[in-house]
Amino acid sequence: MGYEWKVMEFAFEVVMEQYSARVEQRMKRLFQSLSEKDRRRYAAVEADKLGYGGTDYIAALFGVDPKTIRQGLADLDAPADPASGRIRKKGAAAGG
After folding, report:
1. Rounded CA gap, 29 and 57, in Å?
2. End-to-end CA gap in the chain
3. Segments in 1-96 forming alpha helices (H)
């Protein structure tokens, strides 16, 4: 008693939808108003929503490195935020 396996090949193109120019502008404005930590997390959530290709798209939109978005995803997946409540002040010198 033998079994015959049939292998089927499928060709498809993954098309990621992009946001409209109006929505992108609003996203950029919101992004600029956030703290560094919140920017990283916001970018990560947006990239995650888009799926494949989302990281590169959002990195280009916000002008950040894709590594920043991956760090944001790791931050969001962490059980607790070790930097909770700490926000670095814009333009503040390190150490005083």
Report:
1. 17
2. 80
3. 21-33, 36-50, 54-62, 66-77
CA atoms within 13 A on the CB side of 30: 13
| Burial (CB count <10 Å: 0-12, 13-18, 19+), residue 47 | buried
Query: Domain map of the chain by residue range?
Result: 21-77
pTM (predicted TM-score): 0.69
**pLDDT, tens digit, 9 for 90 and up, residues 19-74:** 999 999 999 999 999 999 999 999 999 999 999 999 999 999 999 999 999 999 99
Assess contact for 84 and 58: CB atoms under 8 A. Answer: no
Contacts with 72 (C-beta within 8 Å, 6 or more apart), sequence order: 40, 41, 42, 43, 44, 45
